[in-house]
């Protein structure tokens, strides 16, 4: 059995929990690289750590958009997560998609009854990368999801500054008939919550087309 993160052989006795959760089994070294966010002490709007009240950014989103996303994030975006996302997303090591499949599946249990929607890539970006980094992780959880949104052909987020991200035009259009989401609860899933602009664009479009509630879940914040 290999570590789902570094791919090195695991040579240790496994607990029952590890045996049943082997889809995201990490070695001790890799386990130490990820820092979980304590939701009890995080901003209820965006998941920012150590911000019990609605943080300043979320108060601004509430004023401009009229809602907050109630975003939950699995991990902090620290050095350990940065190394993982660079190897997985930008280098294209598809084997790393299972690094936290068990934790992701556990988090999704809080959203029973929601339509699960990973944020899409543009056709050009998907062609370059060969996979959607979010839906590839989701597929390992066996939880059904649907691409409710389609991304327009715009320049990638990673090439934009914070200010440019916040001013970005709507990058999405519906990929389904509006009846599909009318009066439904939707959970948007992305890899990293940075400014929140992309997730808010997705939520705004879904609300505009009749969604009852839109929340988000990200791998890191």
UniProtKB/TrEMBL annotation:
Protein name, entry field: ComF family protein
Source organism phylogeny: Bacteria, Bacillati, Bacillota, Bacilli, Lactobacillales
Organism, as annotated: Enterococcus xiangfangensis
Segments forming domain Phosphoribosyltransferase: 133-220
Top-level taxonomic group: Bacteria
Family label: Belongs to the ComF/GntX family.
Pfam families associated with the record: Pribosyltran
């Amino acid at each position: 059995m290999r570590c789902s993160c570094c791919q090195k052989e695991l040579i240790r006795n496994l607990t029952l929990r590890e045996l049943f959760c082997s889809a995201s089994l990490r070695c001790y070294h890799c386990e130490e690289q990820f820092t979980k966010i304590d939701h009890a002490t995080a901003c209820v709007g965006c998941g920012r750590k150590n911000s019990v009240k609605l943080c300043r950014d979320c108060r601004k989103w509430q004023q401009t958009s009229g809602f907050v996303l109630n975003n939950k994030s699995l991990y902090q975006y620290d050095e350990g997560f940065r190394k993982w996302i660079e190897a997985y997303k930008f280098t294209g090591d598809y084997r790393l998609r299972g690094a936290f499949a068990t934790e992701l599946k556990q988090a999704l249990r809080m959203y029973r009854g929601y339509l699960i929607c990973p944020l899409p890539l543009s056709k050009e970006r998907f062609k370059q990368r060969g996979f959607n980094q979010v839906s590839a992780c989701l597929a390992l959880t066996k939880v059904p999801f649907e691409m409710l949104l389609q991304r327009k052909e715009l320049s990638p987020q990673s090439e934009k500054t914070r200010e440019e991200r916040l001013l970005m035009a709507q990058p999405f259009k519906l990929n389904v008939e509006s009846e599909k989401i009318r009066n439904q609860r939707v959970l948007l899933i992305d890899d990293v919550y940075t400014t929140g602009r992309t997730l808010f664009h997705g939520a705004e479009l879904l609300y505009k087309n009749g969604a009852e509630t839109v929340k988000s879940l990200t791998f890191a914040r």
